[in-house]
Amino acid sequence: MNLAARPLGRTGLRVTPAGLGLAALGRPAYITLGRDEDLGDDRGVETMRARTWAVLDAAWAAGVRYVDAARSYGLAEEFLAGWLRDRGVPPGAVTVGSKWGYRYVGGWRLDAERHEVKELSAERLRVQLAETTALLGDHLSLYQIHSATVESGVFDDPEVAEGLRALRAGGVAVGLSTTGPRQAETIDRAVESGLFDTVQSTWNLLERSAEGALDRAHAAGLGVIVKEGVANGRLTARAAPAALAEAARERGATPDALALAAALSRPWAGVVLSGAASPGQLRQNLAATAVAWDDDLEARLSGLAEDAEHYWDTRARLAWS
Questions:
Q1: 8-59 pLDDT, tens per residue?
Q2: Minimal CA–CA distance to 310: which of 228, 240, 209?
Q3: What dihedral do alpha carbons 238, 239, 243, 248 form, nearest 10°?
Q4: Can you give the pLDDT at residue 294?
Q5: What whole-number distance in Å separates Cα of residue 240 and Cα of residue 282?
Q6: β-pairing verdict for 102-104 and 116-118
Q7: Residue 10 covered by a domain
Q8: What is the pLDDT of residues 181-191, one digit of tens each?
C-alpha cells in the first residue's frame, strides 16, 4: 500500500494519494447504493458518531492523511472535531478540508423531503466559515465552495471573492468542488480566475468528461481532489458493470478497488477520496493503491464511459437512503 505523503498542488499542504470523505458518515441518509445493508436500522447520532470514529481510526492507522467534510454532511465536522480532540491529533498532522454553500436540513431523518439546501452567497460563506472554524479551529487547512457551477453566479460575486481572498491571506487554502455535466466549464473558469488553490471534481470510469479540464487545472498549479470514484456505489460489487467485474476477478481485486485504481493512475490526481462507511469498506478501497493500472485495463474499461448528461441524470435519480 503506497500512502506516502506528497504536495497538493501549490497549496503547500501534504496529502496522501488516498483520502477519506465523510459524506456517507455524517448524516443518516445519502445517495450511496446499499446503505441499508451497510448501516442497518440504527442511524442514531451516537451510533453514527461511533461509526465515523471507527472509520477515522482505520484511516489513521492505514496512513491516510487527508479528510474531507462539509457543512451539509450533517454532523460530519462535529464528529471529526471530536475525534481529532479525543485522539490528540495536532493541527497539520492530518490535512482537513471542508466546504460551504449547502446547509443540512434533513432533521436527522431518512424520509426528509429535502436533505440539503444550496446557497452560494457571501452571507452563507460568512456564517458557515464561522461554524466550521468553531468546530475545527486550526485543523482547517482547505475551505471549498460546495458544488460551484458557472450558472450559479458565484464566480461573479465580488463579496464572495473578497471573503475567499481574506481566508487565503489568513493561511487557509481556497478551493471549490464541481458537479453536473458542465464540470469542465466550471473548472476552466476557476483556473482563469486565479483565486483557487484546489478543485474537487467527480471523475470515475463512468463519468470522464472533466479529465481534460482537470489536467489543465493541474498544469496551472491547482491541487486536484477526485470524488465519487465509485460512482455512489455503481462501481462496487453491488452494481459493477460486467467488464469491470470480470477485470477485477482477473486481477484479484474488488471492483471498487479497480475503479479507484483508475482514478489514482491519472497523472493530475492529487487525492482520490474513499467514501467508505465502515473500516472494512475502507480497507477494500485502500487496496486500490496496490493495483497496477496498465494500458490493457485502460483499453478494456474505457468503453464504460457514459454521456455526461446521462450520467448526471442517473445520479439525480438515486434515492436517499
A1: 999 999 999 999 999 999 999 999 999 999 999 999 999 999 999 999 999 9
A2: 209
A3: -20
A4: 97
A5: 18
A6: antiparallel
A7: no
A8: 999 999 999 99
CATH number reported for the structural domain that contains residue 149 in this entry: 3.20.20.100
Instruction: Please give the tally of structural domains in the chain.
Output: 1
Q: What is the Cβ-side half-sphere exposure of residue 81, based on CA atoms within 13 angstroms?
A: 16
Residue 229: name the closest of 267, 197, 259, 194 by CA.
Answer: 259
DSSP-derived secondary structure for 97-110: EEEESEEE-STT-T
Rounded CA separation 309/71 (Å): 27
- C-alpha closest to that of 224 among 276, 264, 164, 261: 264
Q: Cα torsion for 187, 190, 191, 195, to the nearest 10°?
A: -150
Grid cell digits, residue 154: 458565484
Q: Give the structural domain span for 113.
A: 17-289
| CB-CB contact of 260 with 230 (8 Å) | yes
Identity at 87, one-letter amino acid code: R
C-alpha cell belonging to residue 229: 470514484
pTM: 0.98
**Structural contact between residues 273 and 21, judged by C-beta atoms closer than 8 angstroms:** yes
Report if residue 307 sits inside a domain. Answer: no
- In this structure, is the dihedral angle defined by the CA atoms of residues 216, 206, 301 and 282, taken in order, positive or negative? positive
Q: Which residues share a beta bridge with 201?
A: 226
CA–CA dist 303, 203 (Å, integer): 15
Q: Kindly give the residue spans of alpha helices, DSSP state H, lying in the chain.
A: 35-39, 45-62, 76-86, 122-136, 158-169, 183-193, 211-219, 242-251, 255-264, 279-286, 295-301, 308-316
